[in-house]
Amino acid sequence: MLYHLLFSLHGSVSWLNVFKYQTFRAMVAFLFAFVFVLVLQPVFIRWLQNRGVGGQPIRDDGPKAHEGKRGTPTMGGMVVVAAVLTSTLLLADLTNLKVWLTVLIMVGFAYLGFVDDWKKIEKQDSKGLSERGKLIVQVALGAAAATVLCIGGVSTDLYIPFLKDVTIHLGVVGFVLFSAFVLTATSNAVNFTDGLDGLAIGPVMTVACTYAVFAYLAGNAIYAEYLGIHYESGAGEIAIILASMFAAGLGFLWYNTFPAQVFMGDTGSMALGGTLGFIAVLVKQELILVVAGGVFVMEAASVVIQRYYYKLTKRRVFKMAPIHHHFELAGWAEPKIIVRFWIISIVLAIVSLTSLKLR
Questions:
Q1: What is the pTM assigned to this prediction?
Q2: What pLDDT sits at residue 17?
Q3: Which terminus has fewer CB within 10 Å in the chain: N or C?
Q4: Kindly report the CA angle at 160 between 155 and 166, in degrees rounded to 5?
């Protein structure tokens, strides 16, 4: 809205012409989202406490060290989501269908996460919604968004990173199913990672930064041709959303860093994960998400391996899943786990970006 208003005045106020540049608007979105969360997060925390809203329920079978976290306010991800949405509505091109689809995906997954959080708080039970119920909604949201992308003319080919001109033609049905899987898997993987103070938001920020680069380049015909990546008209506007996501995460980390004053909750983790998964599909960089989001993949894989190995053998591979709890029980201090996972995430983000030239 602000973009459309200010840019329309550039004829009489020449310097307002800067708003036509996506890079400038991404920087403004970054600053706005950061300040938004930094200022409003403590207000939200106090509001939760004054309303007597119960804190985050702690897993009964979780590490004993987590008992001290009981009662910490949760659903802090609501402020992060609000910051990203507000920045987007103010500074992105609202005539762009891809922007609106990304916004709707974020809202849909945030609402699902909110319902899950609220059930946990209301019942003071860490289980929340049923796994099947959440999966059905996540798959439905992902399939619906992918279908709209197909109608909008987005390629249904799957591009193989690090290889030039190598694609797999999925077809409409294959693309819709694969996209639904990517969104669902990413949303749940981020949710699994959100188990220690600041653990999830760090990799969310590195993945957002990585895909901001991909989105900007994919939306520029000249850069896309030079780098040999798929050109997707209008994708550059998505970089504005990702810049605000990075900044909102940075602001949230101010209050979520160890020891956390507030938890993200499923409201934030599902929304951010689902949005990152959708953007990966949108800019045709789905497979590189396995590398860029390697921390999320590791966390989700540990849960799957632990569950099915135990069903088959009645024995455990890890001391506890997700894998960050395994390291806790192995004697690693919580801050050490968090920082080391952040380091891994940063390295993987750099590796992902090398795919732009290594093809």
A1: 0.93
A2: 79
A3: N
A4: 80
For the beta carbon of residue 355, count every other beta carbon within 10 angstroms.
20
Tokens of 89: 């509505």
Contact 199, 340 (CB under 8 A): no
The two three-digit tokens of residue 45, written as one number: 């925390």
Q: Write down the pLDDT at residue 49.
A: 85
Start-end of H helices in 152-200: 171-193
Sequence letter at residue 227 = L
Residue 185: which of 306, 119, 277, 248 has the closest Cα? 277
- 352 pLDDT above the threshold of 80: yes
How does the average pLDDT of the chain come out, rounded? 91
Q: What is the DSSP string of 76-95?
A: THHHHHHHHHHHHHHHS-TT
Task: Quote the pLDDT of residue 155.
Answer: 92
Amino acid code (one letter) for 17? N
Nearest in space to 259 (alpha carbons), one of 71, 40, 60: 71
CA distances from 198 to 75, 250, 338 (A): 14, 10, 7
Angle (CA) 60-63-64 rounded to 5° is: 80
pLDDT tens for residues 15-74? 677 878 899 999 999 999 999 999 999 999 999 888 766 566 666 556 766 666 777 888
How much is the pLDDT for 60? 58
What are the residues whose beta carbons fall under 8 Å from the beta carbon of 151, sequence distance 6 or more? none
* 3-state class percentages of the chain: helix first, strand second, coil last, to nearest 5: 70, 0, 30
Instruction: Determine contact, residues 248/80, Cβ cutoff 8 Å.
Output: yes
What integer pLDDT is reported at residue 127 of this predicted model?
Answer: 73
- Rounded CA gap, 34 and 247, in Å? 5
pLDDT of the residue at 3? 62
For residue 335, whether the previous peptide bond is cis, meaning omega lies within 30 degrees of 0, is: no
Q: Which amino acid is residue 152, in one-letter code? A: G
- Asked if 10 contacts 17 with a C-beta cutoff of 8 angstroms, the reply is yes
Residue 197's nearest CA partner among 327, 73, 334, 303 is 334
